[in-house]
Specification:
The complex is a heterodimer of chains A (about 350) and B (about 350). Chain A has about 350 residues and is an alpha/beta fold. The relative contact order of chain A is 0.13. Chain B folds into 2 domains: about 260 residues, 3-Layer(aba) Sandwich (Rossmann fold); about 55 residues. The chains are: A alpha/beta (about 350), B alpha/beta (about 350). Bound molecules: thiamine diphosphate and magnesium ion (MG).
Chain lengths: ~350, ~350
């Protein structure tokens, strides 16, 4: 067995990235401020491979697409996923479609890395999740890890993938992003950070984690809670609360939105007959509806509820905490589902 | 035309003291998230905003506090917004990067470059509905590499729209020295759209006022865009709590956390050759060392203006005391009477 060590979430990602860069000189990092944000990689790989970009997302993400087609393995950072709006054409009409357009003869091995998510009071242009919006586009893979070990393993898999992968790291799990955007060195602010997500055991040598394999984080009998990212940890907390009321909940961590691990989803639904999707991304036309739809298509009979973000994320902290899925909302939805 | 330096000093100092109070509140944990201040940019902002007319519009970036204060937004409602209060300017929903005032035709965005298209739309509406009015776009030099801002300049030029593009150039975009990721010369770039361009020292309020006067006359009277480039500083760095500023202020304490992982990574097997690794290391050290160039207090526009007004010590003191009292009243009205602003 591979030796283990304890790493923080973002450390794990950069560590796996470093391993991939060491193994393959074609892997490079492009993005705004990467010279500082990825300083540990910069002093190992130099400025040609940790390439600082101007504030020109549409150009450098677009360039990432063809750089990948022409042989590089770029990991393009758009800082936070909200800024992907500026680069959307490169992703929607190019990265996602080249393989199909070329009759499968040309592919885009690019990773787009971005921080995502809220819970630290930065307002609705900086705290979105958007994985459902991205997952809507055929041709993209979208991964959302919830633990350091998954984050490193999925980053390595994303780099090794021959097709475009969107890699989203939640800011509440990633101490450097949380300090950058929320804490700013202050000891006067607090955040509801799930400890098991920010720090955890990781292999000394990374192996790629199969993309599209969900993980069952807790086995239960009465209902299945499905989520990604920080939502997984909120579900685990809720499941503990629910256990006190003799409700036994499974918690399924999808780990990737695309591909969606349907088999394990069906298994859990078959067992518990009740399904709740907890999604920090927007409710309408997103992950929660998709999960319900594929489960229905399979012919399963189950009752369903969802706890998602339904509106633009408000700046003020107490409203934000209500708008994003929280443990109370998950518990309330679970109890209501048990009763009907 | 001559500027009224006293009223400009009032605008600039009020904005400075207000943002200092905001900084204290942010440090004390009363304000969440990021906080970008306009401390150091007050001269160009005051020069432009003080010469706007009632129906003019403003498109703002992530440093919207000074222009809104100077435009006449209620400071209590602005501060309540930062505190996330329901009586805030936007009901606590926006926060400092997403400030809107219908009355002042002012809209901000935290998306770098977005003030370009916003100003063009405001100017288009002005052309149809409010002839003689103009729209101002405020942005930093980093934003000039954003496609949407370039496209906006072309649109404004091609459609003959009254837009004043105001670049506040502090030479940095977060941790990136903008010159290292920018091709050519920004004045030429803006000029190549066929706009009149002007450059000014953003620490010199008289020069800023004069340039803004000419620029606004030009755009208002001719209905054509103008580009005004002001060199500025950011005395607080990119945002409050800026890690690079922390590191450059307390190198021993802050570097201690950073050096372990950094040196381990530097010495890790498999990677680039030593020359490239050294290059990376040099880049980081140079960035930490140079980040303070944007904070040169010698170029503080408020201090420089005060020096111009010296000799009138009594009047200065009266004005400064009055502003302090007004800021205290704002804090009181926000229920923050006991927060010590000068503690930080
Ligand atoms: C589209 C987009 N990309 C990146 C960012 C992150 N960001 C916020 S401010 C900033 C730097 C802006 O530099 P500049 O335009 O020079 O303005 P300054 O902050 O120096 O006033 C960046 C990159 C953003 N907010 N929006
Ligand atoms: Mg700048």
């Amino acid at each position: 067995m591979n030796k283990v060590r304890t790493l923080e979430f973002d450390e794990a990602i950069d560590d796996a990235l470093g391993q991939a860069m060491a193994a393959n000189p074609r892997v490079m990092v492009i993005g705004e401020d990467v010279g500082m944000i990825r300083h540990n990689l910069l002093v190992r790989f130099g400025r040609e491979r940790i390439k600082s970009a101007p504030i020109s997302e549409s150009a450098f993400v677009g360039a990432g697409v063809t750089a990948a087609m022409a042989g590089l393995r770029p990991v393009v950072e758009v800082m936070i996923v909200d800024f992907i709006g500026v680069a959307m054409d490169a992703i929607l009409n190019h990265a996602a479609k080249i393989k199909s357009f070329s009759g499968g003869k040309w592919n885009v091995p690019m990773v787009v890395r971005a921080a995502c998510g809220g819970g630290y009071g930065d307002g609705g242009q900086h705290e979105q999740s958007l994985w459902g919006w991205l997952a809507h586009i055929p041709g993209l893979t979208v991964v959302v890890p919830s633990t350091p070990a998954d984050a490193g393993g999925l980053m390595l898999a994303a780099i090794e993938s021959d097709d475009p992968v969107i890699f989203l790291e939640h800011k509440l799990l990633s101490p450097s992003w949380l300090d950058f955007m929320g804490r700013g060195g202050r000891s006067t602010v607090e955040f509801d950070v799930p400890p098991t997500g920010t720090m955890g055991e990781c292999p000394k040598k990374w192996q790629p984690l199969a993309i599209g394999k969900a993980a069952c984080r807790r086995e239960g009998e009465d209902l299945t809670l499905v989520s990604v990212g920080v939502g997984v940890h909120r579900c685990l907390e809720a499941a503990q609360e629910l256990a006190k009321q003799r409700i036994s909940a499974s918690v399924l961590d999808l780990r990737s939105v695309v591909p969606l691990d349907k088999d394990i989803l069906y298994e859990q639904i078959l067992k518990t007959k009740r399904l709740i999707v907890v999604d920090e991304d927007y409710q309408g036309f997103g992950l929660s509806g998709e999960v319900a739809a594929v489960a229905l298509e399979s012919g399963l009979k189950f009752s369903f509820a969802r706890v998602c973000t339904k509106q633009t994320i408000p700046f003020t902290r107490h409203l934000e905490d209500q708008v994003l899925p929280n443990t109370q909302r998950i518990c309330a939805a679970s109890i209501a589902l048990m009763q009907n | 035309m001559q500027p009224d330096l006293w009223s400009l000093y009032r605008l600039m100092l009020y904005s400075r003291r207000f943002e200092e109070a905001v900084a204290a509140l942010w440090h004390a944990g009363h304000i969440s998230g990021e906080m970008h201040l306009g401390i150091g940019e007050e001269a160009i902002v005051a020069a432009v905003v003080s010469q706007l007319e009632d129906q003019d519009a403003m498109a703002l970036d992530h440093r919207g506090t000074p222009p809104l204060l100077m435009r006449g937004v209620d400071p209590v409602r602005l501060l309540l917004e930062f505190l996330g209060h329901p009586d805030g300017l936007c009901g606590g929903h926006g926060g400092h990067m997403h400030l809107f005032s219908v009355k002042h035709l002012s809209a901000s965005s935290g998306i770098v470059g977005a003030s370009g298209p916003s100003a063009v739309g405001f100017a288009l509406a002005a052309q149809h509905l409010r002839p003689g009015s103009v729209a101002v776009a405020f942005f930093g030099e980093g934003a000039l590499n954003q496609g949407m801002l370039m496209e906006s300049m072309n649109l404004a030029a091609a459609w003959h729209l009254p837009v004043l593009f105001v670049c506040k150039d502090n030479e940095w975009a977060i941790t990136t020295k903008s010159a290292t990721v920018t091709g050519g010369n920004l004045m030429n770039r803006a000029g190549s759209f066929g706009m009149k361009t002007m450059a000014v020292d953003g620490s010199d309020i008289e020069a800023c006022w004069q340039s803004a006067w000419e620029a606004l006359c030009q755009t208002r009277d001719n209905g054509e865009p103008v580009y005004l480039h002001a060199s500025c500083i950011h005395l607080e760095g990119h945002f409050l709590g800026d890690q690079l500023i922390r590191t450059s202020r307390h190198p021993v304490k802050e570097m201690r956390k950073m050096t372990g992982p950094l040196m381990r990574s530097f010495a890790k097997m498999h990677g680039s050759n030593v020359r490239k690794r050294m290059g990376g290391l040099r880049h980081i050290l140079a960035t930490i060392q140079n980040i303070r160039t944007q904070m040169s207090i010698k170029r503080d526009p408020v201090v420089i203006l005060r020096q111009k007004l010296h000799g009138e010590e009594l009047q200065l003191k009266l004005l400064e005391d009055k502003i302090d009292t007004e800021i205290e009243q704002v804090l009181e009205a926000c229920g923050l009477a006991d927060v010590k602003v000068n503690d930080e």
